[in-house]
Design goal:
Four copies of one chain form a homotetramer. By secondary structure, the first copy, chain A, is of the alpha+beta class. Chain A has a single domain, classed as Thiol Ester Dehydrase, Chain A. In chain A, the strands form two sheets. In chain A, strands 1-4-5-6-3 form a five-stranded antiparallel sheet, covered by helices on one side. The N and C termini of chain A lie close together (9 Å). At the C-D interface, helix 1 and strand 3 of C face helix 1 and strand 3 of D.
Chain lengths: 133, 133, 133, 133
């Protein structure tokens, strides 16, 4: 299992006329979480892209439990529970202090620059290894 | 069952460096679909809000089947299969001509201005009636 | 002079907690206006890109006169007053019926795929010709 | 004069198919800069709003000098040069290490909850005082 935590501050642009964060922004926050997780294990998303890999989102789900507000200090918890193969599932929780606001899941495929599904790069698999023993 | 169709043209702002539409934008498109569906039955979302109701998203899911590109002409198909009560489920499909790009589901609650779950307005239930006989 | 008009409906996602459209969205609307203007003269932005040209924004300005609201039906007026050379200036007005909400200007350079400033494609210059006699 | 600096990391969602940050996002970054500046002087934007004030954008301008890329670590420099009265002008620079990417200016009005232009709250004027002697 791999876990990462990232802090964000809610932007005014992310709110809507209901006075709370517009729901689609949580999916952008999930992306911030997974970018950070990949940074933490030492194989950044940028590095993956630069070596010819892409990780398109195949499926994304979120449950909105409580609203987030402008200027909230939030924490994105990101978790990979199962060792990634051709596909990778990532889970997310958005917290404001002791309150959970949102949970979510994204599923991704490793593809090459032509969009063909492929195995993740060997170095990536190696760097993931210690987390799933 | 209620169905609605809306046309959109993909904006440059909606693409990302992968050259395709960034996935969170589909959730914004779903919103366009449901706003149109409510317009079509004669009870616009704005009217709902102005009479003190909100329809926050409780849950949102999307499956991304094929990418959408800048300047694509897309059609959003929006469907309500079951008569809304305190909650409402809405389904979406995004099409580019004969090709389906994305499917999705959102679940909503009717709440009042204090955020308390409530029944939909009687006129709304009445206007929905003919579609579910 | 070239002029184009495009209709848009304000999206919920474009509003903020002040209850009006968040200002940065107007710049996205300007883009919709210029994409439509290029469509109208028969040389779409996609065609420009596919033949190796880019039109990055060098400068963008907007004056916000009156707010736009969710579900507003707006018209984007887009105008090119001077024949484009290596650079191109485009002007915008956003109207809700008889009320002007916003004016703006963007300046663009024609660049090639390496980002080097370049002259616009000859066919584009030719198609622009009749509008500036 | 008041100055503030804020760090941001470019989000994937902020890029477009040109492979760089889509220009309208800089205006959102400017907002992050001014929210931080107000935090730094001890009168947060949230506090302004909660005491019945709004700071709508009257005008916004940006010059785009060099592109920003996904995962770039950027610094937003925000400056107020003249003591705010009914209106306030704020200047911005976006830097990637020693490289300036963008400059911008926004002009704001203090308005009350009815949108009527008004003087800033006395406490705010007092907190601003020491910076403009």
């Amino acid at each position: 299992m791999i876990e990462a935590k990232t802090d964000i501050i809610v932007r005014y642009a992310e709110t809507d006329k209901m006075g709370v964060v517009y729901h689609s922004n949580y999916f952008t926050w999930f992306e911030i979480g997974r970018v950070r997780l990949l940074d933490d294990i030492g194989h950044s998303y940028l590095k993956l892209e630069n070596s010819g890999f892409r990780l398109p989102v195949l499926e994304a789900t979120a449950k909105f439990i409580r609203p987030a507000f402008f200027d909230d200090r939030l924490v994105i918890h990101t978790t990979i529970r199962e060792k990634p193969k051709v596909r990778m599932q990532i889970e997310y929780e958005i917290w404001r202090e002791e309150t959970i606001l949102c949970t979510g899941v994204t599923r991704h495929a490793f593809v090459n620059e032509q969009g063909i599904p492929t195995r993740p790069p060997p170095l990536f698999i190696e760097q993931m290894g210690p987390y799933f023993r």
